[in-house]
Design brief:
The chain is of the alpha/beta class. It has 2 domains: 153 residues, Quinone Oxidoreductase, Chain A, domain 1; 131 residues, NAD(P)-binding Rossmann-like Domain (Rossmann fold), CATH 3.40.50.720. It is 27% helix and 30% strand. It has 10 helices and 17 strands. The strands form 3 sheets. Strands 3, 5, 6, 8, 9, 16 and 17 form a 7-stranded mixed sheet that branches. The radius of gyration is 20 Å and the shape is globular. The structure holds NADP nicotinamide-adenine-dinucleotide phosphate (NAP). NADP nicotinamide-adenine-dinucleotide phosphate binds next to helix 1, helix 3 and helix 4.
Length: 311
Amino acid sequence: MRAIVVRKFGATPELIDMPVPEVGPGTVRVQLEAAGVNPFDAKLADGILDGKLPHDFPMILGVDGAGTIASVGPGVNRFAVGDRVVGKFLGSPVGHGSFAEFAVIPENGTLVHIPEGVPTVTAAALPIAGITAQDLVDATGIEPGQTVLIVGATGGVGSFLVQLANIAGAHVIATARGTVADQMTRLGAAETVDYTSGPIREQVAAAHPDGIDVLFDLVSPPEVLAELTGLVRDGGTVYSTILAADEAALQARGLRGGNIESKGGASELARLLDRVAEGDVVVPIDATVPLADGPAVIGAPGARGKTVLAI
Ligand SMILES: NC(=O)c1ccc[n+]([C@@H]2O[C@H](COP(=O)([O-])OP(=O)(O)OC[C@H]3O[C@@H](n4cnc5c(N)ncnc54)[C@H](OP(=O)(O)O)[C@@H]3O)[C@@H](O)[C@H]2O)c1
């Protein structure tokens, strides 16, 4: 089968032929139709889990994937051949991901049925980014009327986070270059801040002199995050998805939150899919590219919503 791999940590991803994986007890083999691309794919290729989990090489990349169950192993009872499914294809050993024609996953992993009416390509864009956004909203417990600033709002996580925070009743301020401000407004942002036209802190402070309640930051390094934290009222919440938060400093200021590591699984994914099926959440897919072009988009900057590989 065709698969996108790296042969060692830090190598350039390439499309090669790999053996079709075999099912074992409690696992299913999915024939993948689409796979969502995330910044995490490039981090995995560079060895972010080196020393934490074993890896197999050539390491097949890709975590988000959707397709059809092609075969089931002994003892599987939640899924049957032909079911349409979406999931997170990251296990131990690492290296058996979704950027391939087939992948094997435990039936009790992050794997759920795709509701009728949700296209497989749409579902493939949800797992990492959607679940992370859901985890952030759940961990914060946003109350209606609260002011929420999302820094890095135009990418994968941000596009879902703007929608989920808006659904929770927040007044959402989204960072966006001028050319994508409209897209953020359509997703539910009440205000946008163009981070290329001046410091975010000054722009938000001018519009909200009494401060904001929640800061979700998906991109800022520690020193920038520390500055932006000055916008948050006492008792508010600050989360970083890139380990940029100084948790002791947040606590000392009486702020909640910290560095989040998304732990959501099948139940969060199923909840999101229901919202997509009902039309409450849209999945903003910026580009769908063939598997063969995957190596060029893995780790590429400038995401607008999600990029999906068509397999
Ligand atoms: N901790 C966890 O469990 C977890 C889970 C998921 C993701 N993450 C991490 O969270 C980060 C975001 O993920 P993602 O999937 O949303 O990434 P993404 O799709 O690449 O989006 C990042 C967005 O941030 C914007 N951006 C870049 N620099 C900015 C700045 N200085 N100010 C404002 N916006 C800026 C980019 O827009 P422009 O092109 O306009 O710059 C892009 O739209 C990644 O580092 C990812 O690995 C962590």
